[in-house]
Design a protein that fits this description.
Length: 323
C-alpha cells in the first residue's frame, strides 16, 4: 500500500500495477463485486476509493481487453499466488484469496491490534528435505532439457542430414546425478531458477550419543542472519508451546535462533483437500466466519469451531487422517 492506494509488485512486471486493475483482469466485472468480496463494512469501501480512482487511469471494460497480452495472462495464472491453482481459467478462487489479503491489510489499518506477529508459529512453514530435493531435481531437469534442445538445434541446422539423428548422443546422463551429489556433499543449495541460495543445508550426522543425534535430527535452522542483534526472533513465543523446545538452543550468536522440535511434535505434509472441503459443508456455509482449507477459501460458517472438532471425530474414516 502506497499513498493510500493498493499496488501489485511482481518481479515479472517492470513496474507496479494497480491492484484493482489486476482484479478486473482476473474476471471481476465491476468495483461493487470487489467490495462485496472484501466485506460489507462501509469503511472498507472508503479505504478502497483511492485504488478505484487509480484504476480509472487504466481503462478496461471487459475481459477481452484485459487479456490482450497472453504473457500477462499466464503471469496472473501461474506466477501470481502460485499456491492457489487455476483450473480451466477460473480465477474466482484467486480473486477471493486476493480479496481476503486486501481485507487483512484494511483491518490492520483500522485496528493495529489485528496485525499478525512475524514470530507466530502459525505463520511459519518448515522446508523439509523432500521439498528441497524436489526443487533441486526440477531445476536440474529443466537445465538438462534446455541443454538438449540447444544441442539438437545446432545439429539439425547443419547441411549434412544424411547422418541419422540420434538423441542419445546429445543426452548428458550425469547432469542430474552430479548436481545432486554436489549439493549433498558441499551443503550449498543453489537453485537459480527460484533464486534460492543457501549454505549448510546438509550436515554430517554426529552419532556420538543418542541425545546428540536426536537433537541434530530435530534441529530447525531459521533463515535469519545470526550477526543481527535483534531480540524478536530469539525470544520465546507462547505459540511455540508443545512444538518447539524452550531449552535446547545453542550458546553464542545463534542463541534463540536455532531451535529444536519438541519430542511429541508431528510435522504434517500436504493432504488432499477435497475430503476436508466436503466435510465442512454440513457446518452451514453462509455464515459470518470465513473458513479456508489449504490454499483456498472453502466458505463461511456460523459455527467455525465445529469444523476442526468434527474433523477430529471423523478422522478415523478412510482417506482422512486424524490431526
Amino acid at each position: 500500500m502506497e499513498k493510500e492506494k493498493m499496488w501489485l509488485e511482481l518481479n515479472a512486471f517492470q513496474k507496479k500495477v494497480p491492484l484493482m486493475v489486476v482484479m478486473k483482469a482476473m474476471g471481476m466485472e465491476n468495483d461493487q463485486e470487489v467490495v462485496q468480496l472484501i466485506g460489507r463494512d462501509p469503511r472498507y469501501g472508503f479505504l478502497l476509493m483511492p485504488s478505484i480512482e487509480a484504476k480509472g487511469k487504466h481503462p478496461m471494460f471487459n475481459n477481452m481487453q484485459a487479456e490482450k497480452e497472453s504473457r500477462a495472462f499466464s503471469i496472473l495464472r501461474d506466477v501470481l499466488l502460485a499456491n492457489v491453482p487455476v483450473r480451466e481459467d477460473n480465477f474466482r478462487p484467486k480473486c477471493i484469496y486476493v480479496a481476503v489479503m486486501m481485507r487483512r491489510i484494511m483491518d490492520a489499518i483500522l485496528n493495529k491490534d489485528a496485525m499478525d506477529d512475524k514470530d507466530y508459529v502459525g505463520n511459519k512453514r518448515l522446508e523439509l528435505s523432500g521439498q528441497l530435493i524436489s526443487l533441486l531435481f526440477e531445476d536440474l531437469f529443466k537445465s538438462m532439457t534446455t541443454e538438449i534442445r540447444i544441442a539438437a538445434d545446432k545439429l539439425l541446422e547443419k547441411s549434412d542430414k544424411a547422418k541419422k539423428f540420434d538423441f542419445l548422443t546429445i543426452l548428458s546422463r550425469d547432469t542430474i546425478t552430479l548436481g545432486m551429489e554436489r549439493t549433498l556433499s558441499t551443503g550449498n543449495f543453489d537453485v537459480k531458477r527460484f533464486k534460492m541460495h543457501k549454505s549448510g543445508v546438509t550436515q554430517v550426522l554426529q552419532r556420538l550419543s543418542f541425545i546428540s543425534a536426536l537433537g541434530q535430527m530435530t534441529r530447525v535452522q531459521p533463515q535469519f542472519e545470526k550477526s543481527r542483534k535483534v531480540s524478536g526472533p530469539r525470544a520465546l513465543q507462547p505459540s511455540q508451546w508443545g512444538m518447539l523446545c524452550p531449552c535446547d538452543t545453542p550458546e553464542g550468536e545463534a542463541c534463540g535462533l536455532v531451535k529444536n522440535l519438541a519430542l511429541m511434535t508431528h510435522v504434517t505434509t500436504d493432504e488432499e483437500e477435497a475430503p476436508l472441503i466436503s466435510l465442512s459443508i454440513p457446518w452451514d456455509p453462509g455464515g459470518a466466519e470465513r473458513s479456508s482449507v489449504g490454499t483456498g477459501w472453502s466458505g463461511a460458517a456460523k459455527v467455525p469451531s465445529g469444523i476442526p472438532t468434527g474433523s477430529q471425530w471423523t478422522g478415523a474414516g478412510p482417506g482422512l487422517p486424524s490431526r
